Amino acid sequence: MTDLISPELTAEALAGQPYAYHRAELVEPDWTRLPGWKDVTAEEWRSVQWQRSHCVKNVKQLRDVMGALLEDRVYADLERDQAERATMSMLLPPQMLNTIVPNADYAGTFSEAFYADPVRRYMLPMFTDRRSDWPSHPHATRDSLHEHEMWATEGLTHRYPTKVLAEILPTCPQYCGHCTRMDLVGNSTPVIDKLKFTIKPQQRLDDMLDYLRRTPGVRDVVVSGGDVANMPWPRLETFLTSLLEIENIRDIRLATKALMGMPQHWLSDDVRAGVERVASIARRRGVMVAMHTHVNAAQSVTPLVAEATKAMFEAGLRDVRNQGVLMRGVNDSVPQLLDLCFALLDGATITPYYFYMCDMIPFSEHWRVSVREAQQLQHGILGYLPGFATPRIVCDVPYVGKRWVHQLSDYDEVRGISYWKKNYRTGIEQQDPEALNRTYEYYDPIDTLPADGQGWWKQHAGDSIAKAAAQAAASRDAAESQKLLQIS
């Protein structure tokens, strides 16, 4: 029996598609190409202790690694951003820094390639990256998703009816420039004085567990922070084991960018053995334990990331999924998104799950895309990936939650205001009769709007902010009244 379609015709048809699929082999970039690591051995590189102790935390340490590869203007640009704009302090593990300009296949100078690199653009933001017209949206806030208002106990956000987010610690092995929890996570910067947990760590965890025992409507816990890889494993295992003893908990998700940023942690013998113990208990109880990671560019998926993912499956986790963030200059094209999805799926068996639109935090306008652009990107990636591995692009709407970008109720594209509704009450709206009828607003970056829209914001930004502030104050007052009623 002969093939109905010849290989030549198949190749020609693929070449004529908007996106041509090809399976790329994963490559671990050669870290010895960087002057500061020219003598680092493979054994040292695989050591989580070496990775943690050699993280880059400031411009001087970056210079020690990169040396003369980067021009002085690059270091000056970084220093100015850290002093005037950065909402997150600098912290990159060697594994992650090594994926910036990973090979010699680039045009121009190394400094030019460094500026253009997608991983650099979100992990090491420069002052010249930021917009000068609208560096922050008028409605940008430190806690853009109002998670703190929805804390059932300190660090435990109860926004969705059956799900909670447990922020078990405020640190990560690496700090992303666009971090949505920039008000709490990491060290303070010159422009952001970080909030601090006030309750002792163990008491916070105990309070979370007590709340979950008293709240049988919750079945799903996202264990996050920060990053769970920064919690000593024995303490994390104790917390997870306690979660598994609560009858109503049926899903546990471990949130860790470190699977990509520091896979050496998840390859450590003690951590692998601990994950296996937790997964064994979960299987006996019929509870699903999965891992969620955060990869934004295909070049970040290396053989070590694939090895760590395989180790998690072998230890018994049900799934490993990726939740990326959609950002200009990083992954805002169909080829970039599909290259990333196929690298995750083919190279590391990580399921592409979500791409979030970058949240409205301060100084993030150069990263954010409009809802219309997000809709076009969602359309562009359909049909190439398996259905179960086609990520949804979602907008995390303040006071609403995750919404697929096509779910908006109305859209003023001139002023860049989209309107959304929801089908549940958050933890602070149990007594609000209008919560399910009200529309909630999300805002496009102003520089993406037509001239009329940009002109409107220049004239009315103050009025719009005042109105939003009054609405937020009313919501907070209603939430406080509800808490007082519950206490009494």
Topology:
Blueprint: H1 7-15, H2 42-45, H3 48-53, H4 59-66, H5 72-84, H6 94-97, H7 110-116, H8 118-123, E1 151-153, E2 156-157, E3 163-167, H9 201-213, E4 220-224, H10 233-244, E5 251-255, H11 258-261, H12 263-267, H13 269-285, E6 288-293, H14 303-315, E7 319-326, H15 334-348, E8 351-357, H16 371-381, E9 392-397, E10 401-404, E11 410-412, E12 417-420, E13 440-443, H17 451-487
Parallel strand pairs: 3-4, 4-5, 5-6, 6-7, 7-8, 8-9
Antiparallel strand pairs: 1-2, 2-3, 9-10, 11-12, 12-13
Helix pairs in contact: 10-13, 13-14, 15-16
- Bulk shape: globular
| Beta content | 5-15%
Strands across the major sheet, in which order?
A: 1-2-3-4-5-6-7-8-9-10
Helix content: 25-40%
Distance between the termini: 79 Å
Helical segment count: 17
What are the low-pLDDT stretches, counting only 5+ consecutive residues below 50?
A: 481-488
> What is the average of the pLDDT values?
93
- Radius of gyration, in Å, reads 23 Å
**H and E order:** HHHHHHHHEEEHEHEHHHEHEHEHEEEEEH
Number of strands: 13
Structural class label? alpha/beta
Keywords: 4Fe-4S, Iron, Iron-sulfur, Metal-binding
Protein name: Lysine 2,3-aminomutase
